[in-house]
Automatic annotation (TrEMBL):
Gene Ontology molecular functions: fructose-bisphosphate aldolase activity
Protein name in the entry: Fructose-bisphosphate aldolase
Catalysed reactions, semicolon-separated: beta-D-fructose 1,6-bisphosphate = D-glyceraldehyde 3-phosphate + dihydroxyacetone phosphate
Keywords: Glycolysis, Lyase, Metal-binding, Zinc
Broad EC category: lyase
Database matches in PANTHER family: FRUCTOSE-BISPHOSPHATE ALDOLASE, FRUCTOSE-BISPHOSPHATE ALDOLASE CLASS 2
Metal-binding is among the record's keywords: yes
Pathway membership: Carbohydrate degradation; glycolysis; D-glyceraldehyde 3-phosphate and glycerone phosphate from D-glucose: step 4/4
Protein family: Belongs to the class II fructose-bisphosphate aldolase family.
UniProt keyword Metal-binding present: yes
SUPFAM superfamilies recorded: Aldolase
Function: Catalyzes the aldol condensation of dihydroxyacetone phosphate (DHAP or glycerone-phosphate) with glyceraldehyde 3-phosphate (G3P) to form fructose 1,6-bisphosphate (FBP) in gluconeogenesis and the reverse reaction in glycolysis.
Annotated cofactor note: Binds 2 Zn(2+) ions per subunit. One is catalytic and the other provides a structural contribution.
Amino acid sequence: MTVATPEQYSQMLSAAREGGYAYPAINVTSSQTLNAALQGFADAQSDGIIQVSVGGAAYLSGQKLKDRVVGSLAFAAYAREVAQQYKGITVAFHTDHCAEQYLDEWVRPLLDIEGERVARGEEPLFQSHMWDGSTVSLSHNLDVAFELLEKSQKARTVLEIEIGAVGGEEDGQSAEINEKLYSTTQDAARVASALGLSTDAEGNARYMAAFTFGNVHGAYKPGVIKLRPELLGKIQKDTASHFADVPGAHPDKPFYLVFHGGSGSLPEEIAEAVSHGVVKMNIDTDTQYAFTRAIAGHMMENYDKVLKIDGEVGEKAEYDPRAWGREAEDSMAARVVEACRQLGSAGKALR
């Protein structure tokens, strides 16, 4: 396994768009969940994206420190060291869901650090960063995105933006489940006018766009979520037509699209979204559950061994964190493999 260079990351995104598949983007919060994600990608022979959220970055620095930059730097260093020991696939690192109140203490400092690294001839630590402007006006969202895109280009990273609101709750950001969850073709036109298209004239990726089409974070019962993946197709078609003469414009899929809040979505809904140019789909709720479910199963099956009941001493081999940790990692890795197969990236590693 290798950690993607900026050129390789752009190649990954382009291959997914042209090949009609998407990469699972797996949120991690620890070395154990990171290792589970790497294991899953390796088992699936899939390239992929591993990401940390605003809360995950703080947690990675230690719950007493809660420093998002420190947590992100520590994650990137550890992840790079471990990932390079795997063979045959490529992974990218991404920071996920940075709302405006966290920009100055998280993504802006990271971009400054990476800009300095690039100026020294080094690689950036992350391959992409997300600006979550879902709770502000589109005008303000795009103003901030324009500023961050300039920093991102200097750091040789890709910017991810969110246009519209995703329902549910993620790391303190929440939105109701209503008509505001659907982006419009007019929104897309404003994005392309303000930021340019998602690739430059040479075809290199500049940004990814998470247009909303009814997406909701978290887990919900059938019938609650009303996805409209056909909206993504209309956004791509109308934008391609309007910007057909722009150098580097893709004739069918001018945007690299991102799918947020996909837990519980029907397979046919996911497939249609991917067919319209989704190249990245966030996976968090399902992998969290897979990891924790295995731990719960171990504890329930071995309760008299992991607990010192009635004066007994328990069984160290069963309450050793490595015992239940291995089961949790295997369970989460299996869910990553399932995601790779569902999104079509399994067996398509570029290396």
